[in-house]
Amino acid sequence: MLYKFFNILLMEKHQKIANDVKQTFLELENNANIAKDKIRIILRGLSKEDMIDQINELHLSEKSLNFLCEGIALESEDDEICAAVQQIKNDLQELEISQATYAPVIYYHNHFQQPAPYLHLASV
Which of 27, 56, 73, 77 is packed most tightly, with the most Cβ within 10 A? Predict the structure, then answer.
């Protein structure tokens, strides 16, 4: 009898936790949708240059930039936002390429006390 009582209490507690988790996810989805709409509204009123500046100030990762275009702008057909995101991604790719080709030469003194070139491998 006591076992049955504890089993019922455990099932009720499990059901309450499951309901709480479900409610939390519903609230999270609602808040995410509100945030997506706010981002769209803020960016839509800007010129492309201002839009790029505002997005750059957020220092978003590539995944976040993709989400900004695919998850937010494409749903509402805001092509200007996607164009700005694509420009940012192109600029970042150009920067990455230019940094990858830059390899500074550092000089160190050899045992003859003469400067000798040394290619810094961490920057390659």
Answer: 73
- Residue identified by tokens 């990858």 is 100
Residue 124 lies inside a defined structural domain of this protein? no
Domain count, the chain: 1
- Over the chain, what is the mean pLDDT? 78
Could you tell me if 60 and 68 are in contact, meaning their C-beta atoms sit under 8 angstroms apart?
yes
For residue 106, the model assigns a pLDDT of 54
Beta strands in 4-122 (DSSP E): 105-109, 115-119
Whole-angstrom distance, CA of residue 10 vs CA of residue 12:
5
CB 106 within 8 A of CB 118: yes
pTM higher than 0.85 for the full model? Answer: no
Expressed as residue numbers, the domain containing 13 is 2-100
